[in-house]
Amino acid sequence: MADRKEMSEFLAAVERRAFVQTVYAVRREEVALDIVQDAMIKLVERYHDRPPAELGPLFQSVLKTTTTDHFRRETVRNRWTTLFSALGPDDSEDGGRDILEAIESAPGSLQAESAADQVERSQTMALIEAEVKRLPARQREAFMMRYWEDMSLAETAVAMGCSEGSVKTHCSRANHALATALKAKGIAP
User: Fold this and answer.
1) How far is the C-alpha of 153 from the C-alpha of 159, rounded, in Å?
2) For position 136, what pLDDT does the model report?
3) Could you give the CA distance from residue 35 to residue 155 in angstroms, rounded to a whole number?
4) How far apart are the first and last CA of the chain?
5) Long-range CB contacts for residues 103-109, cutoff 8 Å, separation at least 24
6) Which of 87, 97, 103, 117 could be stapled to 113 by a disulfide with Cβ–Cβ 3.0 to 4.6 Å?
């Protein structure tokens, strides 16, 4: 059972990695921060009685679920917003100002990027994601756990049900395959 100190140390150690991982998934820092905080609260509320060694995989699972829940809520919210906006008057014909045009993006944020940079980044990410999907299942699984979820070698081995040496082999093969495929498409590290 993790005591208060161990739980605090675990959360402090995983906080930054979880935030970066979630920003990548949801593309908005403020939303990512909320998701990570919610996941941490759920971990403490539901799994405080688990041993410290189990907290890493449990937290990854809670974080994934919380992120998925966010996307589900967004989908429902967007449906209702679209339905209600169709019922209201159209302000654009009478010279009303669009509120989105008045909001300035912070320098260095994703919103401040030029359209060309956004398109280039999204195309590069699509190529990378396509190549990751082409990896054999075990290589993809090891690669995602080690480098995307930032799990330790031991945690990955336990989650995959294999030895640490097998995890190293799968990751090495995945890295080599991705580097070769991406280099062929003009994407250099």
Assistant:
1) 10
2) 92
3) 23
4) 42
5) 109/29
6) 117
DSSP element (H, E) containing 120: helix 115-134
DSSP assignment of 63-128 equals HHHHHHHHHHHHHHHHHHHHHHHHHS--TTTTTPPPHHHHPPPPTTSGGGS-HHHHHHHHHHHHHH
- Tens-place pLDDT, residues 89-146: 554 454 554 545 444 555 555 555 678 877 887 888 888 888 888 899 899 889 888 8
Q: Give residues with Cβ within 8 angstroms of 71, minimum separation 6.
A: 26
In angstroms, the CA 62 to CA 64 distance is: 5
CB contact burial 64-81 (16+ within 10 A = b; e otherwise):
eebbeebeeeeeeeeeee
Lowest-confidence pick of 22-31, 84-93, 137-146? 84-93
pTM above threshold 0.70: no
Please give the pLDDT value at position 166.
95
Average pLDDT over residues 164-188: 90
Give residue 126's region: left, alpha or beta (phi > 0; psi -120 to 50).
Answer: alpha
